[in-house]
Amino acid sequence: MAHTHTPTVVTTPVTELNDAAIEQRIYLIRGHKVMLDVNLAGLYDVPTKRLNEQVRRNLSRFPDDFLFQLTETEVHQMRSQIQAVS
Fold first, then answer.
1. Which residues contact 57 (CB under 8 A, 6 or more apart)?
2. What pLDDT digit, counting tens, does each position of 18-51 carry?
3. pTM of the model
4. Residue 65: alpha-carbon gap to chain centroid
């Protein structure tokens, strides 16, 4: 899960998602397929803040490579990529 500070991505309720909609929320970053925290939270229908709180509280339950913080450059690239799709 890649964490950004930008809640600008519109999420679709899990009841409306299909495989294609989920695949559209997977990005290639640093050679890894990842989902942004905002999209993962949308899948579980919870606020992004809550998802991140729970992950931080339970870090020992996740593999070391489960999450990372995007650099400013990566955030800019993600915004451009998302806007191009919209």
1. none
2. 788 888 888 888 898 989 999 899 888 999 999 9
3. 0.66
4. 14
Give the domain range for residue 79. Answer: 2-85
Q: For residue 2, what are the contacts with CB-CB under 8 A and spacing of at least 6? A: 27, 29, 34, 35, 36, 37, 67, 68, 69, 70, 74
Q: How many domains does the chain have?
A: 1
* Beta-carbon contacts of residue 47 (< 8 Å; ≥ 6 apart): 41
**Cα(30)–Cα(27) distance, integer angstroms:** 10
Q: Bin 30: left if φ > 0, else alpha if -120 < ψ < 50, else beta.
A: left
